[in-house]
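Field reference: sequence -> structure
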Amino acid sequence: MSIFAWITFFLCAGAIFLRYAITGDTRFLIYAIPGLILLIVLPMTLGWMSRRSYVKAEREYDQKARSYRIGQIGESTRGRTVRITGNVEKVRFRWLNRPHFQLKDDTGTIRVILFTSPAERISIGDRVEVLGMVMKNIFDRRGQAISAVSIKKTGS
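Structure field:
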């Protein structure tokens, strides 16, 4: 779950506790406690569903992906399914469960965007393999980015 989901949960739990402490109204808890449970269950369920669909997409992409060096990815590769390997230089937006990674190999750098949390924790300095589709980088109009369905650590 994202940090926003946890903050929302704890704020609502605090407000419910405060309301109950002030009024002593137990009827209010009949609605409030299931609401709190939903604040936990819904984001977890949506995250699970998202990861499940990404596993399915990974199988489909894996069959048609072609290996590229980062420097080979340009406007002509936009829309293609690619597999790249590189070292993680930056990690952003992990707290939103929508991490962006900056990958580098000896031919260049590229932004990799994952719209769900990865299966394993990826950190700066990790060597990873990315499977995804080339798209226009919305943060740098001149460059490309990878919309990833999979990012995995590699041993070498």
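Note: The longest strand covers residues 81-92.
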